[in-house]
């Protein structure tokens, strides 16, 4: 074995083939651990690969994790070493690069492989279309044979076939140990780990057959065509941002061939800009060639102090279900499975009512009945279950916070490094009154992907409703100002934060952004307070009529609603006083 260090692209290619292999097909935890270790090392973060950070990032442990009593990292690292040895001794015997996890640490090591397969070996068909002879040629020359272009640059369709192959062997995830909500909620979680993967749909029949395609997300590639330090910095920031979004599958290679028949594959091209020193980033559909988004970064935008904000702004516009990629998929008639459900889920948060809620819930529910294993499905179901409890939606019948806890727990089990799962768990914790837990989980979601302004908004929102208005309001305000297509709850949180800080002009502006939503009592209450502060007497009269007609229970006792929603006591008092001043009955 040679001791030269393989190039980064070769390491990434080997990692993708290894993760798609039969050897690793039955071990979800080993795949997650290996990807985490290699990607962190390749990103220059080898110093972070310690037992404590691995326990938290990969296995969902919390700040109380004690490596002296919990051996999960050591045990899983040992298992990973065994699987790597088995892979390179068998189906990966002729891989051009070998990956190992040396004992005594968790930082991966890479070496070029000198093994040659005998020329007379019987060709063995590979999933990517190449034979064992092709692999022997790779081992000798360092390059795949000219007749095997799929190996040099696997198309997304091939990558998807590989992914589906090992997904077909994947077992239901069963993480040892339970993530426990403090302050009395541990009993709810004790049974969460064994929750059935099938839901009773109260008359609805699943229309999604058990299939890996139900979990399929848009594939996103990156191709760097610009040179220089600034281009490298932009590319590194873009890769870091793309790897943190749950709503896409990021293929961490620098180039990709064009799968003209794949309507859900996209590529970010990093190109020289129109002026000296500029860098242009283009998001392109690989099926149609259409450029969906283009951003030009000046040298100031590419500077270390600014580049992450510029990339976060772009990715928050492009990657969530409300963003460019999903909008394009919906317009071209391509959504299905999880993609369709995420689009419906986003429509609910933009227009919150019983109809949009039920559409989103039923779609995700059908995915579960179809055998979906995505943490996104359970995370979003947890949030929707809580929405049903809070707003008394008819569907699903008998919604409870306990069910929301079960869904959120399953989401974290399936996605221990998922920002969406952590955000959902934080939301559930806040509704249980576990303020510290809510903040911790939402902060973790934000840390897992600081490039997603939605995670920043959730963290700011959580701080606000924990009574930490001065901390949370600037975070939420920055997110809302940066991303105009945000959900309605951002505006409500911003209203509350500015209201409690005494910034009434900003509070009024935030309340006016709620004007399209008349289906939530607390949103109408915010609009009423804003209208009163702005001296809009006619609007005050209209809103009072709506509240008394549509929400008589709230109008009679708004305090009860705020207490039920676990609002801080000072916030409850201030809101009740403001509603009384606006003329809402005998607000108590």
Q: Topology of this protein?
A:
Elements: H1 8-19, H2 28-42, H3 51-57, H4 72-89, E1 97-100, E2 109-112, H5 132-141, H6 149-152, H7 156-169, H8 186-190, E3 219-224, H9 229-243, E4 249-250, E5 265-272, E6 279-285, E7 291-297, H10 307-318, H11 324-331, H12 338-350, H13 354-369, H14 375-391, H15 401-414, H16 419-431, H17 435-448, H18 453-464, H19 469-482, H20 488-501, H21 504-512, H22 521-533, H23 537-550, H24 552-556, H25 558-564, H26 569-581
Parallel strand pairs: 3-4, 3-5
Antiparallel strand pairs: 1-2, 5-6, 6-7
Helix pairs in contact: 1-2, 2-4, 9-10, 12-13, 13-14, 14-15, 14-16, 15-16, 16-17, 16-18, 17-18, 18-19, 18-20, 19-20, 20-21, 21-22, 22-23, 22-26, 25-26
Keywords: Membrane, TPR repeat, Transmembrane, Transmembrane helix
Organism: Mesorhizobium sangaii
TPR repeats: 419-452
Notes on the protein architecture:
Strands 4-3-5-6-7 form a 5-stranded mixed β-sheet, covered by helices on one side. A two-stranded antiparallel sheet has the order 1-2. A hairpin with an 8-residue loop joins strand 1 and strand 2. With 588 residues, the protein is an alpha/beta fold. It is globular, with a radius of gyration of 26 Å. Among the domains are: 160 residues, no CATH class; 115 residues, 3-Layer(aba) Sandwich (Rossmann fold); 116 residues, Serine Threonine Protein Phosphatase 5, Tetratricopeptide repeat (Alpha Horseshoe). It contains 26 helices and 7 strands. Helix 9 packs across helix 10, helix 19 crosses helix 20 and helix 20 packs antiparallel against helix 21.
């Amino acid at each position: 074995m040679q001791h030269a260090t393989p190039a980064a692209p070769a390491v990434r290619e080997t990692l993708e083939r290894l993760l798609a292999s039969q050897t690793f097909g039955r071990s979800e935890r080993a795949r997650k651990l290996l990807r985490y270790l290699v990607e962190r090392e390749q990103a220059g973060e080898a110093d972070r690969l310690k037992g404590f950070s691995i326990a938290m990032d990969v296995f969902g442990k919390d700040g109380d994790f004690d490596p002296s009593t919990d051996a999960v990292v050591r045990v899983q690292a040992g298992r990973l070493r065994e699987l790597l040895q088995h892979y390179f001794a068998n189906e990966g015997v002729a891989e051009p690069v070998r990956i190992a996890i040396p004992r005594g640490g968790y930082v991966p090591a890479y070496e070029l492989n000198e093994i040659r397969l005998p020329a007379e070996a019987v060709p063995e068909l590979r999933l990517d279309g190449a034979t064992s002879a092709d692999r022997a040629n790779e081992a000798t020359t360092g390059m795949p044979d000219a007749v095997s272009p799929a190996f040099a640059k696997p198309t997304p369709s091939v990558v998807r076939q590989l992914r589906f192959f090992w997904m077909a062997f994947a077992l239901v995830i069963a993480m040892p140990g339970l993530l426990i909500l403090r302050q009395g909620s541990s009993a709810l979680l004790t049974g969460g780990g064994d929750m059935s993967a099938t839901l009773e749909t109260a008359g609805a029949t699943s229309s999604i057959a058990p299939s890996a395609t139900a979990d399929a997300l848009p594939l996103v590639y990156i191709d760097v065509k610009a040179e220089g330090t600034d281009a490298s910095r932009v590319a590194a920031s873009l890769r870091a941002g793309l790897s943190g979004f749950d709503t896409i599958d990021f293929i961490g290679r620098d180039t990709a061939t064009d799968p003209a028949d794949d309507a859900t594959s996209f590529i970010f091209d990093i190109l020289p800009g129109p002026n000296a020193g500029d860098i242009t980033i283009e998001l392109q559909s690989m099926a149609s060639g259409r450029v969906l988004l283009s951003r030009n970064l000046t040298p100031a935008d590419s500077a270390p102090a600014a580049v992450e904000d510029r990339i976060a702004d772009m990715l928050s516009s492009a990657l969530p279900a409300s963003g460019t990629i999903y909008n394009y998929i919906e317009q071209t008639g391509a959504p299905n499975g999880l993609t369709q459900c995420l689009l419906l889920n986003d429509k609910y948060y933009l227009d919150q009512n019983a109809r949009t809620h039920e559409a989103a819930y039923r779609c995700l529910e059908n995915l579960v009945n179809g055998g979906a294993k995505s943490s996104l499905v359970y995370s979003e179901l947890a949030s929707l279950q809580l929405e049903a409890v809070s707003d008394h939606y008819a569907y699903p019948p008998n919604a409870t916070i306990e069910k929301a806890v079960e869904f959120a727990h399953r989401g974290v089990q399936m996605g221990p490094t998922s920002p969406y799962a952590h955000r959902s768990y934080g939301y559930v914790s806040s509704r249980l009154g576990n303020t510290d837990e809510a903040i911790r989980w939402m902060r973790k979601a934000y840390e897992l992907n600081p490039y997603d302004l939605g995670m920043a908004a959730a963290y700011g929102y959580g701080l606000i409703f924990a009574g930490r208005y001065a901390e949370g309001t600037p975070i939420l305000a920055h997110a809302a100002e940066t991303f105009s297509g945000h959900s309605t709850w951002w505006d409500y949180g911003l209203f509350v934060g500015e209201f409690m800080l005494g910034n009434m002009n900003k509070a009024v502006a935030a309340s006016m952004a709620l004007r399209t939503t008349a289906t939530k009592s607390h949103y109408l209450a915010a609009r009423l307070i804003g209208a009163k502060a702005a001296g809009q007497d006619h609007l005050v009269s209209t809103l009072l009529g709506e509240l008394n007609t549509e929400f008589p229970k709230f109008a009679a006792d708004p305090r009860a609603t705020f207490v039920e929603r676990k609002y801080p006591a000072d916030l409850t008092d201030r809101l009740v006083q403001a509603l009384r001043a606006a003329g809402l009955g005998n607000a108590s």
